[in-house]
């Protein structure tokens, strides 16, 4: 979605300009030249559409016995099922989401350290698992010659 935002914005703008031209609305047509995409709306759009998009993906994927556990984990997440009531894959998804948010905030130096125990207790993630994850340095790719 983020990668296509600029193109979708451009397509919508061209469509609107064509409409204005066809309706001989010159003032609106020329005003469109000043319109620029605002990326600041993307976080709200993503939050608003996240569950709907995930539901659509779940509907269109052909699930089999080998990946049905992933479907169930996604459904548990969409339905905001408490972590204690989730399958092991549902718990892992909740923990991955919590760690991903933490990691992003921590790298930006905006995560409040005293909140860390509560943040991870909420998804049943013990401190030793967090330390093991940090040692693995997820998200970093090592390049060797």
How does this structure look, described?
Helix content is 62%, strand content 0%. It has helices spanning 5-22, 26-31, 42-60, 68-78, 88-107, 116-121, 127-136. Helix 3 (42-60) runs antiparallel to helix 4 and helix 4 packs across helix 5 (88-107). The radius of gyration is 22 Å and the shape is elongated.
Which helices and strands, and how do they pair?
Blueprint: H1 5-22, H2 26-31, H3 42-60, H4 68-78, H5 88-107, H6 116-121, H7 127-136
Report how far the terminal alpha carbons are from each other: 35 Å
Q: Which shape, going by the Cα principal axes? A: elongated
Mean pLDDT: 89
What class would the helix/strand composition place it in?
mainly alpha
Q: What order do the SSEs take from the amino end to the carboxyl end, as H and E?
A: HHHHHHH
Largest β-sheet summary: none
- Sheet-strand content, in percent, reads under 5%
User: Percent range for helical residues?
Assistant: 55-70%
pLDDT under 50 segments (min length 5)? Answer: none
Report the C-alpha radius of gyration, rounded: 22 Å
Tell me which oligomeric state these chains represent.
Answer: single chain
> DSSP helix count?
7
Q: How many beta strands in the DSSP annotation?
A: 0
């Amino acid at each position: 979605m983020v990668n296509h935002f600029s193109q979708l914005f451009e397509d919508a703008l061209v469509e609107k300009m064509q409409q204005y031209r066809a309706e001989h609305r010159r003032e609106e047509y020329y005003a469109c030249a000043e319109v620029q995409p605002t990326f600041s709306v993307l976080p709200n759009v993503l939050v608003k559409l996240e569950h709907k998009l995930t539901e659509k993906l779940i509907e269109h994927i052909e699930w089999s016995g080998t990946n049905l556990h992933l479907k169930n984990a996604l459904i548990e997440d969409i339905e905001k099922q408490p972590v204690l009531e989730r399958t092991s894959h549902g718990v892992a998804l909740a923990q991955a989401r919590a760690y991903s948010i933490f990691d992003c905030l921590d790298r930006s130096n905006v995560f409040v350290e005293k909140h860390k125990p509560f943040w991870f207790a909420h998804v049943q993630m013990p401190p030793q698992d967090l330390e093991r994850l940090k040692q693995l340095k997820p998200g970093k790719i090592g390049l060797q010659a």
